[in-house]
Amino acid sequence: MSTILVVSGTGTEIGKTVVTAAVAAAARGRRVAVLKPAQTGLAPGEPGDAAEVARLAGSGVTAVELARFPEPLAPATAARRAGLAPVRPVEVAEGAQKLATEHDLVLVEGAGGLLVRFDDEGGTLADAARMLAAPVLVVAPAGLGTLNATALTAEALRARGLGCLGVVIGSMPAEPDLAARCNVEDLPVAAGAPLLGAVPEGSGALAEAEFAARAPQWLAPALGGTWAPARY
Predict the structure, then answer these.
(1) Exactly one of 16, 36, 68, 103 is catalytic; which is it?
(2) Beta strands in 173-228 (DSSP E)
């Protein structure tokens, strides 16, 4: 049976795409697809997040984008300003289900946070996750402020009856400050779910083969890796 996993974040630019790529790379021997419902901020022909996941994972990942809007804005706003049809949660769910018929693992990477609007009716990634009955993996930053944002995201998931698989730190500094070190222990409490990994800062700049080889070291066994939380 195919698994569908929704990857969301507590915000934008926090390493969500790199974490998605790491999960894809750790799924050794499985047929993996990544679905990006709405890519914003890129012109036609430029490689987007789904293509970046496929590049980094190095495992024949299928990359699919449902829509692209040129301005770097929330999907609903970007679609409206471009005069283009928005992506709706039902389309996201249908796209993921279609990919699941031919793949063992489908990763649905959202845009920004869980409740960013896809359309002017208020449809969100959370709505797509509910339609799919899929668990959500939350990507969070390492530093100060992450506990509140993570707790809010987890609360929004619970309010909608959605399961939080766990949290992954999207960009862990090589020399974490006091807040980042403490957050390794405190993030699971804030989320009410386990910490399932920490991807080192700058990992997205690695070459494909090195990224794919290292990725399992950054993720816990629940995500196909070997990582375990360390005390700092």
Answers:
(1) 36
(2) 195-200
